[in-house]
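Check this:
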Amino acid sequence: MSDKVRIGIIGAGAVSDYHHVPGIRIDDRAELVAVCDPNEELLQQRQSDWGETKSTTEYADIAADPDIDAVIIATPNFTHLPIALACIEGGKHVMCEKPLGLNFAESKQMYQAARDKNVRHMTAFTYRFAPSMRYVRHLVSSGALGTPRHFRSQRFLDLPETSWGWRQYKATAGAGDLFDMTIHRIDFAKDLMGPIESVCGAIAQYAPRTKTVDGKDCEPSEVDDWSSLIGRFQSGAVGVWEGSTVMKGYHNDGFGYEWAEVNGSEGSAAYQLTDPNNVLVGKAGESLQHQPVPDEFLVIPGSPRDPKAGVPSTVFRYDLVYELVSAIVEERDAVPGFDDGAMAQAVADAVLVSYENKSWIDIDANVDD
């Protein structure tokens, strides 16, 4: 490996532009050396936006390139498995957007391939890096809230009800809100409260999405616009999750609405995406009160990001690249890894089975067998 971690991005869309490229730019240990996307016009635009790099429409070129150390995959869900396996086989460290695959089996296969090849692997569970979420985790793990009893999250977006393209078909997306948004909350609930033992879930579809943005006809959506589950953690604590992409009045400049809380035997703490540098905390007999997140939780340790610069609900996402690069440089596991991505996928899969069967489903998330 060179003096810097040389990163290739596969998928040059908005997520890479908003989150990953800025993260690379602020980390002196990393450099963007290659970009891959099937859209040649977009590739040309990114040469202007991101600076001159190697450019290709074929992910196999990135996987085989000996001058690339790590890859960030930000492509449609159904492509994650083949791209990740090719890059892992090429000896690349990999960060992949969620969901890792179209189901738990694919995610488990990705994890085991990375484990067996001894490359660093990371799932882009962005919200683990929010300052208030990191501080809530500290409050839980330190015992400041007593015994954790209950987790609750609500994630509402007010998105257009026109076509989502590949995102609205099961063969290419797997599921809708459940795999796109609720899976994040499943992950950080597990991070806060421990493994999830069983769930009972439901989904709903409100928008047919039979028109594209420019008014053309398309095949109707097959996936959910709303997902919800109740669950029991192995610890005995319980949880409630709800998410939707079509809740009117929750636009908030594109950030939507998010609330997540942990209720313990001695107190409660809550996180809000629209105010990620502050947290709400209350003890028994008190009311929840806003308080600033302590400075040491505003960025992950060592991150060069200035917590006072930029839009708070956006800039914490840059820390994902710092974690990936740190894991590579320090020769340790990245957090959250592909194993975390697979375990969250197992829970999301169980929601679909639960809804189909109208029953509780026990979670089997063994990724190492």
Notes: Residues 127-316+345-354 form a domain with the Dihydrodipicolinate Reductase; domain 2 fold (CATH 3.30.360.10). The first helix runs from residue 14 to 25. The chain has two domains: 5-126, 127-316+345-354. The mean pLDDT is 97.
